Amino acid sequence: MFLPKYPDNPTPPPAHTHTPSHPAPIPRLLPSISIDKNTIAVVLVGGVVLTALLAAVAVTAISVSVAAVVLRSLLRDQNRR
Fold first, then answer.
1. Domain positions in the chain
2. Distance between CA 38 and CA 33 in Å, rounded?
3. What is the pTM for the complete model shown?
4. What is the DSSP letter of 8?
5. What is the pLDDT of residues 33-81, one digit of tens each?
6. Residue by residue, what is the 3-state secondary structure of 9-64?
7. 47 C-beta neighbours (distance < 10 Å), count
8. Chain-centre distance of CA 34, in angstroms?
9. At a CB cut-off of 8 Å and minimum separation 6, what does 54 contact?
10. Is 36 exposed, middle or buried (0-12, 13-18, 19+ CB in 10 A)?
């Protein structure tokens, strides 16, 4: 019922005979940027600064949460007395 139908006399596909005289141009998908030492330095310094800021925020958040837990514990103990 669902069997494919094959041709009686299969013919091979024609051989590709066209050879281009020059290679096809490669399309540019991204804009051309010039990368020099200054650009690399700016990117590296920016990455270091952003990483340091992220670490500072994380350390501050952890210390604030620890201080809140300690203060809560102290206030709870004081209210029980």
1. 55-81
2. 13
3. 0.49
4. S
5. 677 888 899 999 999 999 999 999 999 999 999 999 999 998 887 766 5
6. CCCCCCCCCCCCCCCCCCCCCCCCCCCCHHHHHHHHHHHHHHHHHHHHHHHHHHHH
7. 10
8. 22
9. none
10. exposed
